[in-house]
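Example record

The entry below shows one chain as it appears in the dataset: sequence first, then structure tokens.
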Amino acid sequence: MRQLFPVLALAAALFVQSQTTALAIDVVPAGNRNAEQPAIPGASIRRTKGNKSSFEAKYQKVHDLLAGDRQLTSKIKAAAGKYGIDPIHIVGAIVGEHTYNVDAYDRLQSYYVKAASYTGNFRFAYDGEAIDDFLKRPQFAECEGKKGSYALWTCRENVWNRSFSGKTVGGTSFPRNRFSAVFFQPFYAGQTFGLGQINPLTALTLTDDVARFSGYKKLDENDAAGVYQAIMDPDISLAYMAAAIRRSIDAYKKIAGVDISRNPGLTATLYNIGTPDARAAAFAARRAAGEATWPEENYYGWLINDKLDDLRSLL
């Protein structure tokens, strides 16, 4: 561990964008801000009961997967090192996803087998309109000058929310739903996949980061099978998890002037709910108005902080 942290620090310094900020960085204290766990969404409760399981049973199952597979924890540490983060953040995201969303497989090999099944001829589209054609609509012209996949797809998602979600445009009625749910889930709604439970739009958003730091090829929205292969393969999925967590940490430093890197419950919360830039900006505004002191964890992140000693023992 002593040898790892200098590597992490170097990776973090290389990862952070060249822009600087005049904000003083305040370190968020460890632990939960809420004495009791925030409410768990009804959908998660119903799904777990429907499978005749419990959150404690699901937690224990993913805990056993991590505890029993040294290869997996070694891969987690390696991925974390490339992105300059403590591996506990990746562990927290895996545990949260498999406790409140899907059950964990019993062994890592099962994830590789599942990844191999996602081949075939399918595409990202809605109502017969392929994503490539949809992005040629004039509303997206403002995004074409954006540099990097993160800025490009964040812009496109903002355009979707502003100009298409819940509206009828050019004769097509679009659902009031997330961009990722409408265009990037060709099998059924609510899809996230693999060890990291990553959705395809998140992967496209982070593909430049992952190509740069992990060396995996960049994803293309016109190659839906390639995107699914990336998020289903455990090795590549870990890289995308690390990239997402790194983005959240950097967003809160740059935008809100706080360092969340020592609070795995907060990074787990952001992994769960997404849009870290917008959430960092909203928190910064509340803090400036005296309405907030620190960011707060949700039900998912609360569990990670509550179980932190147990989870650190896995590493």
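Notes for this example: Confidence is low (pLDDT under 50) at residues 1-22. Strands lie at 26-27, 125-126, 129-130, 168-169, 172-173, 258-259.
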